[in-house]
Amino acid sequence: MPAALDRRSFVKGGAASVAAMALGTTALASLAGCGPKQEKAPDAEKPAPQVEAYDIVIVGAGGAGLAAALAAKQGGVAKVLLLEKGIGSGGNTNFSSSGMNASETRFQVKDKIEDTNELFAEDTFKGGHELGERTLVDFMCSNSSAAIDWLDEAGITLDNITQMGGASVKRCHRPTDGSAIGKTLIPGLRDAVEREGVETLVETPATELVVDANGAVTGVKAQTKDGAETTFEAKAVIIAAGGFGSNKEMLRKYRPEVADFVTTNIPYTTGDGMIMAQKAGAELVLMEQVQTHPTVEQTTGALIAEGIRGGGAILINSEGKRFFNEMETRDAVSEAELEQPGKYAYVVYDQQVYESNLDAVSYDERGLSVKAPTLAELASKIKVDTAALEEAVATYNAVTTDGATDPFGRTKGLIAFGSGPFYACKIAPGIHYCMGGIRIDEQSRALDAKGKPIAGLYAAGESTGGLHGSNRLGGNGVCDTMVFGPNAAEQAALYIAKSA
Ligand code: SIN
Fold it and tell me: Who lines ligand 1 at CB under 6 A?
């Protein structure tokens, strides 16, 4: 995917070239009508309803869905279908900008980073203000290292590790060149599912789950591209359809205070998977927990990655002053920004940060950053007080070099500013992630309000609720999808084997 492709252009399906770049060849084949047979009924305006049979149908071909599809095939499931309502696979994960948190990995060992699954779980639980489901937290963290190895085996190597907010140590794993993870992860997974023979139908929104007389989920109804209502019968269904960060109505219902904020989400994340699961009996939990990301460019919804701050960037307000610990959790940083004059801030960094975070090149190309050879010229360009900006950088540099105590308590991601050029991106909080969703257990089974699993229904990724409590740590979104996506597939395969 080219750097210039952003979240908004992703949905402008009229641009064939954009669509082609965002699609894998299976998806392109299905666009060309090579997916399941959808014959038009003669003499009828609306094509006749169709029925297709699969072992596992996955609703949503984002990160969690692709990972689930790959694991299902690797586990020997014969017929796996990915249903995607967007023009291409990858979903929000296409734009995932930092990396994947994981602990006790061989890449951490290589870099002499001491970490444990327990410390990762503790950070995750604390970061979510102890509202997370502890069993899910422990499960994710203790399976994170295996997920890194699994991706490596699929040709997706994440061996460049950076610091993220709320993390006790460096554990955010990125591609070798320090680029945004989505640009490596999604093409890699897409290729892998194609190689394994997963069928993908894009522009095919799922509309309803099929539930039998015993309450078991036995399929999905969807609207195929030719307008036919197709029932995809399935022995098990996995909901991996993302959150509701682009659904104003749901945001107004569950978290009205942020409903009018700009969103980093692609327009397809409208909570459909959650609603479908709820109608089939699943409980939705923590729905009011919607995360704002503190560094979002407000005219485009583009995200300035947390890894930029982890790599040494600072935040300054419209007066040129630092105001908060940049490595605090997202909820805390967002709140601090909203208390600043004008309710915005700038992410400011030097050439070292630019070079070690390839995404910064795309900020430059997309006009999201302002560049200047000196701090004084940068201050003048962004219209902040020069002396204040120089003082902010000098004080920060003293912390990194003299070991002075940071006035804002920052202890992580401290890397001194070197020489110019310097960069600034104007940002404010934007809707980023839904911590609430379908209640699941460690077997990724969708649960009803009594905690009873709904037979045949599994869920993974942002469609689920409970793992991240009231605040997700940066880098834990990808870890969630790469642990629980495959887990849902493995558990669904076991369920199918047992029911046979
Ligand atoms: C970021 O890099 O700031 C976004 C990645 C995430 O949400 O985990």
Answer: 96-98, 303, 305-307, 474-475, 477
